[in-house]
Amino acid sequence: MPKRKSEDSHMPMGECISQVQTLLRERLCHQQLPQRPEGVDSQHKHLLELLKRTAAHGESNSVLIIGPRGAGKTMLLRRVLAELLVEDDVQKTLLQVHLNGLLQTDDRIALKEITRQLSLENVVGDKVFGSFAENLAFLLEALKKGDRSSSRPVLFILDEFDLFAHHKNQTLLYNLLDVSQSAQTPVAVVGLTCRLDVLELLEKRVKSRFSHRQIYLLSSLTFPQYLKAVRALLQLPDPGFPDATFRRDWNHSVEALCEDKSVEDVLRRQFNSTKDLRSLHRLLMVCLSRVSVRNPAIKPVDLQDAGRLLSADAKTNVLHGLSILELCLIIAMKHLNDIYDREPFNLQMVYNEFKKFLQRKSHSMYNFDQPVVMKAFEHLQQLEVIRPVDAAASRAQREYQLVRLMLDHSQIMEALQKYPQCPTDVKQWAESSFA
Ligand SMILES: Nc1ncnc2c1ncn2[C@@H]1O[C@H](COP(=O)(O)OP(=O)(O)OP(=O)(O)O)[C@@H](O)[C@H]1O
């Protein structure tokens, strides 16, 4: 076990590693907000100004933050809130209500949650209200200060905003947006959603009460920015990490890692498949879990392994459990796809193709009767490796039912590479371009 030299280390190696693990885990598991979010400056400014107007000047507002999953909608809002709450006045007066469309599945539950988050259960007591609007108005009224001249601003955050549009009559949305439009109580309604067509889901009367302010977070990260994000995620802060020598060594190793060609390939593949930073976090988390006293830095091979693990194809994995006969049928189908340009085929054609392969060999151990082949074919269908073209035509005789192969060439070849003890002639047959 490598031991660090005592003269340049203030902490034992085990302690350093445990601190690195804790710090990076907090970053990668979204507990810590990024210091400087990449590429969202204008959106950040827009949202901050808007919410400041509600928090400091009592102006009502409504806004939608729209972007795909993992685009940073929650992160942006949390950052803006953290900045707003630095001010003492705001911290004392601003009330927040967090609702989520996945949790508050109808307006009755949502109203209960609003009451709970505003700590107004005692005020409401056993009162019975005639309507939703009356209930909400009562809640907001209860928040007014003693002198009745001013109210405390309330920030309603509706995560998965589109799901609230499915509530009966969209009562909650209607009432919240109605309050945010009339100058009764300072209320800001912030909706977070990944649906670009969210406005189409709103009823006319709800839509007309929305301010139509929309902030789009459409990831425009370039690869160099993505790499910068990787560095920022892995590097240790200066100052902020107790052992300066360890920090320097770690940061050098991160620099070297980011410049490695094989690492760049893994990251580029990941970037091309998704720019979502959440997937990047998952990738780095797997690498981080390998860091230990014996292995005190992330190595290129860790990233390659993590990339392979996370991009493992479920269908390729299914192929590893197939019998040789089933694998041969898939190869026959691959060749049929090549010959007929991905047109559908039937079992008889597959069987003929398989027989052609057998005939090229003088003696073969793959002589299966047709019922056995039929059974294997059915198994492939159960696994959804093949699918009937037209389910309604299932009355046709089994052998002549048209099916399609649901795998592409790369998946088949990858599965063959990993198939335990795959016979060489089968491999060669799969690789050959002629049938
Ligand atoms: N521009 C950015 N800079 C730095 N980190 C970012 C950026 N955008 C997103 N992230 C990080 O990506 C992760 C996912 O972001 P977040 O949870 O805000 O996504 P979201 O859009 O709210 O997703 P969902 O629609 O699933 O709720 C967070 O850890 C966040 O810190």
Number of distinct helices: 22
- Provide mean pLDDT, rounded: 85
Ligands present: adenosine-5'-triphosphate
What can be said about the biggest beta sheet? 5 strands, parallel
- Write out the strand line-up for the largest beta sheet, numbering strands in chain order: 2-3-4-1-5
End-to-end separation in angstroms reads: 55 Å
Note the run of SSEs as H and E. Answer: HHEHHEHHHEHHEHHEHHHHHHHHHEEHH
Beta-strand percentage range: 5-15%
For this structure, the CATH topology of the largest domain is Rossmann fold
Compute the CA-based radius of gyration.
Answer: 30 Å
Instruction: Specify the CATH homologous superfamily of the largest domain.
Output: P-loop containing nucleotide triphosphate hydrolases
What does this structure look like?
With 435 residues, this protein is α/β, with parallel strands linked by helices. The protein has three domains: 6-10 and 221-310, no CATH class; 41-216, 3-Layer(aba) Sandwich (Rossmann fold); 316-431, Arc Repressor Mutant, subunit A. Helices cover 53% and strands 8% of the residues. The chain has helices spanning 13-28, 41-57, 73-84, 88-93, 107-117, 121-124, 132-142, 161-164, 171-181, 198-201, 204-207, 223-234, 244-259, 261-273, 277-288, 300-310, 314-319, 324-339, 347-359, 370-382, 409-418, 424-431, and strands spanning 61-66, 95-100, 154-159, 187-193, 214-216, 386-388, 403-405. The chain has a five-stranded parallel beta sheet with strand order 2-3-4-1-5, with helices on both faces. It has a two-stranded antiparallel sheet with strand order 6-7. α1 packs antiparallel against α15 (277-288), α2 (41-57) packs across α3 (73-84) and α7 (132-142) packs across α9 (171-181). The longest helix is centred in the N-terminal third of the chain and has 17 residues, at 41-57. The chain is flat. Bound molecules: adenosine-5'-triphosphate.
